[in-house]
Specification:
CATH architecture of the largest domain: 3-Layer(aba) Sandwich
Number of helices: 11
Order of helices and strands: EHEHEHEHEEHEEHEEEHEEHEHEHH
CATH class of the largest domain: Alpha Beta
Number of strands: 15
Number of domains: 2
Radius of gyration: 21 Å
Shape: globular
Distance between the termini: 48 Å
Strand content: 15-25%
Largest sheet: 7 strands, parallel
Structural class: alpha/beta
Length: about 375
């Protein structure tokens, strides 16, 4: 069966994808960066244990390698790479910096540009002509585009056209891939993911990104200061494009099985969730009342409102969006299903996340 090589393999989406691939008996190679505290294998086992409720044993069809994204040959022996890339291989580049502000600009572009360039170099050197390179991008490489974000390349642009440096770096990386496709005949595909949330059917949520980071901050404030009325600079009628992890994994698994794919796919939710529904869930689950007010100025904020505003430095730029994503090509090649996030399923995810977060705090207190 086809071999799947994945870098950044211990990330949220990548590890869930790997879990499904292993269950379908694919041979999986996981590239993970070890650190001073934990080896690559320990980091991979830890995240896979989390997915499988502590019942994970490394199977024979999973091989884990410690790698360095920016080093030549990823810091791995040439003979190892020759063996890993021989035959029919699908290679998925997940590794990315999720930082976004000016202070981290150099790190963002080093990881999200130089890292991609090095990844392409390794793939081009060792992979066969039939192998495929998949770059995991973001649907928010659209930046501040007005109108429908199509499944095509968009030219690089100045930072003023984006909400943050993360978005800009992903647009730059997409154009790097574009250059290698056009000049070097790189057999590549770009998969643009929107905000990935928890499992739509079970509610289990193992990510603390986006709306869950916001939920955690509200929970912390509400537990210390119950019965607060808090104004937040959020447009209640604007929406979030939230795609469940189980739906993302389904799409990714289909990319392995479908041989002829468009170059770019917008892997996004078809139905968005309103901000008002998210605020309503938090109000029902926590002893706090959240009042959306788009024209709220810093000079008018209470101390607690300022705390939340500072914590929303990333999410705030997405609270007034109603982005339209084109999915024409996605719909042409992927099996349709109705597994979409709804106000009710997001409520279950927030409930699970807050319960888990509260449990972690209790353990620390003990």
């Amino acid at each position: 069966m086809k071999r799947i090589i994945i870098n950044g393999a211990n990330g949220y989406v990548a590890s869930n994808f790997i879990n499904e691939l292993l269950m379908q008996h694919y041979e999986v190679v996981a590239f993970v960066r070890g650190n001073q505290k934990y080896s690559a294998e320990e980091r991979m086992r830890d995240v896979m244990n989390d997915i499988n409720d502590g019942a994970f044993v490394v199977p024979k069809n999973l091989r884990i390698f410690n790698y360095s994204l920016l080093e030549e040959n990823f810091g791995l022996p040439e003979e190892t790479l020759v063996e890993l890339f021989q035959g029919d291989v699908d290679y998925y580049h997940f590794a990315a910096s999720l930082k976004y502000d000016f202070k981290a600009k150099d790190e963002i572009f080093q990881t999200n540009m130089d890292g991609v360039e090095n990844s392409v170099a390794v793939f081009s050197k060792y992979a066969s002509d039939t192998s495929r390179f998949f770059f995991i991008s973001t649907a928010y490489s659209c930046g501040k585009l007005a109108g429908r974000f199509e499944e095509k390349f968009y030219d690089i642009a100045d930072i003023e056209e984006f909400r943050n440096y993360y978005e800009q770096s992903k647009r730059y990386a997409e154009n790097l891939i574009r250059k290698h496709i056009e000049n070097d005949r790189l057999n590549a595909h770009i998969l643009r993911l929107s905000q990935v949330v928890g499992h739509n059917k079970t509610g289990i949520t193992k990510t603390d990104y986006g709306i869950f980071d916001f939920s955690r901050r509200i929970q912390s404030l509400a537990m210390r200061n119950p019965d607060l009325k808090l104004r937040v600079k959020v447009d209640p009628e604007s929406t979030q494009n939230l795609i469940p992890i189980d739906k993302v994994v389904s799409y990714l698994t289909q990319t392995v099985k479908i041989q002829q794919l468009p170059v770019i796919l917008n892997v996004v939710a078809k139905k968005a969730v309103r901000n008002s529904d998210i605020l309503k869930s938090l109000g029902e689950l926590l002893p706090i009342e959240l009042i959306p007010q788009m024209d709220l100025e810093k000079s008018e904020m209470s101390v607690y409102e300022r705390i939340i505003s500072i914590g929303m430095s990333f999410t705030a730029s997405y609270t007034g969006t109603k982005i339209q994503f084109d999915t024409t090509k996605l719909d042409e090649v992927m099996e349709a299903d109705d597994n979409e996030a709804t106000a009710e399923s997001i409520h279950r995810m927030i409930t699970y996340f807050l319960d888990e977060n509260s449990g972690k705090k209790d353990k620390v207190a003990c």
